[in-house]
Amino acid sequence: MKVLITGGAGYIGSTIASMLLDQGHTPVILDSLVTGRPEFVQGRIFYQADIADRQALQRVFDEHPDIFATIHCAALIVVPESVSKPYEYYTENVVKSMELFKYLAERGYPRVVFSSSAAVYGSVAGPDFMVTESSPLNPESPYSRTKYMMEMILKDFCAAYGLKGIALRYFNPIGGDPQLRTGLHIQYPSHLIGKLVQVALGKEPEFHLTGVDWPTRDGSGIRDYIHLWDLARAHLLAVEKFDEVIAGGRETDADYAVINLGTGKGVTVKEFVAAFEQVFGKPVPVVEEGPRPGDVAGAYANADRALKLLGWKADLPVSQGIADALAWGKVRDNIIHY
C-alpha cells in the first residue's frame, strides 16, 4: 500500500519510511526540510513543501490517488526551544496540522496516524510513574501542549468531518535504523542519547545531566526508552491494521484511538548513563545540573493497549538502542553533509 509520511525526512519519519519499504509498501514523503535531511529521501518519492501548503497537498494526492493513510510526523520537538519560541511551535505544530487535517477530510483521505508524545502526561503522581492511556493529561511545556492540542483537534475532526485517527504517544526513542540508512541527524542534539554519543565520540567534553532532585529512586528523571526500529514497526502495524484498531479502540462517538508506545519499563537517566558506559566500554564525564526549562520528572508506559490493538510490544533492549546509536554516530558525518 501507499502511505503519505509528513516529516518523512526526519529522524523518526525516515525510519518509518524504511520500515514500510522493507515490508513492501510505498512511502510518499512530504517534508519542508526545515529540520529534515535531503540525504534521507534519496531514491524515495519526495515532495519538498510545507504541510499546510494546499497546492502541494493537491499535487501529492493528484499524483498518488491510491494513498491509503497519512502518518503525520512533521513537528518541531525541542522542549527548551519551545519555551523561548512558543509562537513558532504553536504555528508549526498546531495551526499547520489543523490545515493538514482539514485538507485530508475534504479530499476524502480519512485515515491519520498521528505522532503524539508521552509529554502530554506531564508530571505523574504516585510512586511508580507508570501511565496508561486514561491517565490524566497535564502537558507542562509549549511543545507538549502543542501535542495535546493536536490530539484534541484530530479527535474533534474525527467526530465532525469523518476523519479516523490513531494517536501514538511515543515515549523516548533511541537508536536508529539497524541498516544505518538513517539516524539522529541534528548536528547539535538536545536529547539524552545524542548528547551521550557526542561525548563518547569526543565531540563534546562532558555530558550534562540535567535534573537530579526529582522524586525518583535516584533523583534523576525517569523515562521509557524505546528502540526506534520498534517504534517504526508500531507504525507499520497501525497502518496495516488501521480499521481494526479503530474498531477496537474507538473513543466515545469519534473514530479515534490512543495508544502508548513504550517498553513498559522505567529507566532513570542515571541508570541509562550507566548502561551507555557499559555498552561503550568506558566511563563518560558527567556534570550534574538543574533541570532545563520545561523538563519534568517523567513517566513510563503501560503498553498493554498496544499489545491488544496492534499485536505489538517492544522487542529490542536499551543496550541495542545504545549500540545502534553509537554505530550511527560513527558514520553520520559520512552520510549527512551539513
Could you list the spans in which at least 5 consecutive residues all have pLDDT below 50?
A: none
Structural class: alpha/beta
Strand segment count: 15
Helix content, binned percent: 40-55%
Q: What would you say this structure looks like, in words?
A:
The chain has 338 residues and is an alpha/beta fold. It has a domain of 213 residues: NAD(P)-binding Rossmann-like Domain (Rossmann fold, 3-Layer(aba) Sandwich), CATH 3.40.50. The protein contains eleven helices and 15 strands. Helix 1 packs across helix 7 and helix 9 crosses helix 11. The longest helix has 22 residues. The model has no long low-confidence stretch (mean pLDDT 94).
List keywords for this structure.
338 residues; alpha/beta; Rossmann fold; seven-stranded parallel β-sheet; 11 helices; globular
What does this entry show, briefly?
The protein is α/β, with parallel strands linked by helices. Helices cover 41% and strands 19% of the residues.
Write the layout of secondary structure elements.
Blueprint: E1 2-6, H1 11-22, E2 26-31, E3 45-48, H2 54-63, E4 67-72, H3 79-84, H4 86-107, E5 111-117, E6 130-131, H5 142-161, E7 164-170, E8 172-174, H6 192-200, E9 207-210, E10 222-223, E11 225-227, H7 228-240, H8 242-249, E12 256-261, E13 267-268, H9 269-280, E14 286-289, E15 300-301, H10 304-310, H11 318-335
Parallel strand pairs: 1-2, 1-4, 2-3, 4-5, 5-7, 6-15, 7-12, 8-11, 9-14
Antiparallel strand pairs: 10-13
Helix pairs in contact: 1-7, 4-5, 6-11, 9-11
